[in-house]
């Protein structure tokens, strides 16, 4: 099948002190082309491990991942990634950052220029091509990061807390941009976040993960991302149905954190 | 009064509204305030002039400023020991630049090897760590035994002074590359060679440059010492020969020249750094 298929994936880290940590335990799911998945969970639930496995940076201890009918074994330009702030190449200009992928794909300079211009105008940075990365604000840097990833036209876009370091206002705007890009490109996206609101507003599917061992405990299919394409995201966040799911998930994560704290106190006693 | 002090550069209006200045680095490093610099330089020059005019010091211990100036003009036009002043300075500089250049040529790749391969790291680590704290001057006797007192011996000594500094600076710069940048490059279809030259190398450049600045300082110090031991020409040789004839004026001239050239080198390096790596410290 096309799309992403994760079958019975487990990841065990062997710590130097001889202990084994189960970062992921028997994870299985399918992602259809064009879906936007958000993954939510407290720190240590294995969501970053999951993303690194999907990108091909890590090989799982067991299980198998296929994307578009091919097994995922190493990084591939077909699977792009957007990182938290600080992963841009600060020695290159904005244009050169966005053009990096096409250049590595061996595209011709005039093609690269067209690609760069296209994506910079889509993310709203058409006039900023010549700027240096360190001259841009955090939000603008993440726009460059999105454009850099999209310039190679990956079929799957992995996002590792892309808005995590932004202030609340910029973050809301960027959520709108991610929805716009999702609609316009029809790409499959998997995004991890630790913001409940962000997970709900962006994900047409939402996974809740729990730690020790890292596992999937609940899955939602939600209408808010679709609504966000038409409506202001701030309006959606006020809707009763949005608030209901948000509170349900917050309670779930709250209980998880309580349990972790309790366990640690138990260990210390 | 305030205005005059301002004009002369003794106050700084940019930071005067700050009520807490003690311990605030931005106040200390704020631009302006050059008046104090001229005051300190001027103080020593005037003191030296006064000491020369009133003959406060025996010229064998410290020469009058006029004598040093005369020696400067004389050596500049007539030369010293068969070489002109520019030849003395030029020869010292040539040795420094050759040693520095070869040191970079070997040290930078060595640094990358140390940073990028666990086997290379384990293999070379003891060698690098052994030579790193070794003063190059301690190696002079061995170098003279092996290579004599010619040009190659001096350049080899300077190479030894430079190579470990460059290797360690490069290693630390390369190791500081954020893994997310490398991951990003892989997902953008870069291969290992492209990641080395387009991600790790530019990422290490600021530290490589710092290493180069340190190297230049160390090499310049080492060349003077090497020439003190044995040389036909060079600034260090000038000082050494002059001291045997109790020509303190030439000794002091040599010391001033060493200081001025070293300062000039650092100014050039800082200029190049600002030009070549404008992103330094801004990630």
Structural overview:
The complex is a heterodimer of chains A (269) and B (283). Chain A is α/β, with parallel strands linked by helices and 269 residues long. Chain A has 2 domains: 4-78 and 155-268, P-loop containing nucleotide triphosphate hydrolases (Rossmann fold, 3-Layer(aba) Sandwich); 87-153, no CATH class. Helix content of chain A is 42%, strand content 24%. Chain A contains 9 helices and 10 strands. Chain A has helices at 47-55, 94-104, 109-122, 138-150, 168-185, 196-202, 224-230, 233-236, 240-268, and strands at 4-14, 20-31, 36-40, 62-67, 70-71, 79-82, 156-160, 188-193, 205-210, 215-221. In chain A, the strands form 2 sheets. Chain A has a 6-stranded mixed beta sheet, with helices on both faces. In chain A, strand 7, helix 5 and strand 8 form a beta-alpha-beta unit. In chain A, helix 2 (94-104) runs parallel beside helix 4 (138-150) and helix 3 packs across helix 4 (138-150). Chain A is globular, with a radius of gyration of 19 Å. The mean pLDDT of chain A is 92. Chain B is an all-alpha fold. Chain B folds into 2 domains: 2-56, no CATH class; 77-276, MetI-like (MetI-like fold, Orthogonal Bundle). Chain B contains 12 helices and no strands. Chain B has helices spanning 2-8, 25-28, 34-53, 65-78, 85-116, 118-131, 140-147, 151-175, 179-187, 192-229, 235-244, 248-276. In chain B, helix 10 runs parallel beside helix 11 (235-244) and helix 10 (192-229) runs antiparallel to helix 12. The two termini of chain B are 44 Å apart. The A-B interface holds A 55, 57, 75-77, 79-81, 83-84, 86-91, 100-101, 104-105, 132-134, 148-149, 152, 154, 160 and B 178, 180-181, 183-191, 194, 198-199, 202-203, 205, 277-279, 282-283.
């Amino acid at each position: 099948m096309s799309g992403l298929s994760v079958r019975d994936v487990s990841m065990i880290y062997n710590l130097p002190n001889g202990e084994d940590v189960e970062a992921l335990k028997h994870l299985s799911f399918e992602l259809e082309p064009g879906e936007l998945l958000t993954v939510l969970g407290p720190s240590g639930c294995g969501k970053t491990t999951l993303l690194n496995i999907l990108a091909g940076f890590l090989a799982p201890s067991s299980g198998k991942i296929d994307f578009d009918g091919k097994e995922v074994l190493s990084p591939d330009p077909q699977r792009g990634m957007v990182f938290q702030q600080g992963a841009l190449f600060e020695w290159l200009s904005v244009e050169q950052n966005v053009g990096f992928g096409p250049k590595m794909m061996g595209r011709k300079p005039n093609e690269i220029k067209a690609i760069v211009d296209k994506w910079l105008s889509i993310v709203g940075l058409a006039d900023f091509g010549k700027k240096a990365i360190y001259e841009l604000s955090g939000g603008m840097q993440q726009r460059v990061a999105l454009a850099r990833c999209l310039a190679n036209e990956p079929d799957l876009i992995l996002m590792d807390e892309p808005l995590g370091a932004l202030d609340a206002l910029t973050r809301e705007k960027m959520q709108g941009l991610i929805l716009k890009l999702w609609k316009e490109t029809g790409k499959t996206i998997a995004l991890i976040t630790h913001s409940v609101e962000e997970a709900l507003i962006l994900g047409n599917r939402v996974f809740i993960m729990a730690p020790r061992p890292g596992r999937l405990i609940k899955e939602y299919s939600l209408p808010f991302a679709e609504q966000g394409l038409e409506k202001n995201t701030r309006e959606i966040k006020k809707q009763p149905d949005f608030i209901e799911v948000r509170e349900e998930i917050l309670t779930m994560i709250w209980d998880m954190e309580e349990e972790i704290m309790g366990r640690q106190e138990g260990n210390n006693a | 009064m305030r205005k005059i002090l301002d004009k002369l550069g003794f106050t700084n209006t940019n930071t005067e509204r700050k009520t807490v200045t003690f311990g605030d680095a931005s106040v200390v490093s704020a631009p302006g305030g050059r008046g104090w610099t001229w005051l300190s330089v001027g103080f020593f020059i005037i003191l030296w002039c006064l000491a020369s005019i009133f003959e406060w010091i025996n010229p064998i211990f410290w020469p009058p400023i006029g004598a040093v100036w005369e020696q400067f003009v004389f050596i500049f036009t007539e030369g010293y020991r068969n070489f002109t002043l520019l030849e003395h300075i030029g020869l010292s500089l040539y040795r420094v630049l050759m040693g520095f250049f070869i040191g970079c040529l070997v040290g930078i790749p060595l640094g990358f090897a140390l940073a990028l391969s666990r086997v290379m790291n384990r293999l070379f680590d003891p060698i690098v760590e052994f030579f790193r704290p070794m003063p190059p001057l301690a190696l002079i006797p061995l170098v003279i035994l092996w290579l004599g007192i010619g040009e190659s011996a001096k350049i080899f000594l300077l190479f030894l002074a430079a190579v470990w500094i460059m290797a360690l600076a490069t290693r630390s710069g390369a190791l500081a590359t954020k893994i997310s940048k490398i991951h990003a490059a892989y997902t953008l279809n870069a291969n290992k060679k492209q990641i080395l030259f387009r991600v790790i190398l530019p990422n290490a450049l600021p530290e490589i440059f710092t290493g180069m600045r340190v190297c230049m300082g160390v090499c310049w110090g080492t060349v003077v010492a090497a020439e003190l031991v044995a040389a036909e020409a060079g600034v260090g040789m000038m000082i050494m020969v002059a001291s045997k004839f109790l020509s303190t004026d030439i000794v002091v001239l040599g010391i001033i020249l060493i200081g001025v050239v070293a300062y000039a080198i650092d100014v050039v390096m800082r200029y190049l750094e600002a030009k070549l790596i404008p992103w330094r410290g801004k990630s």
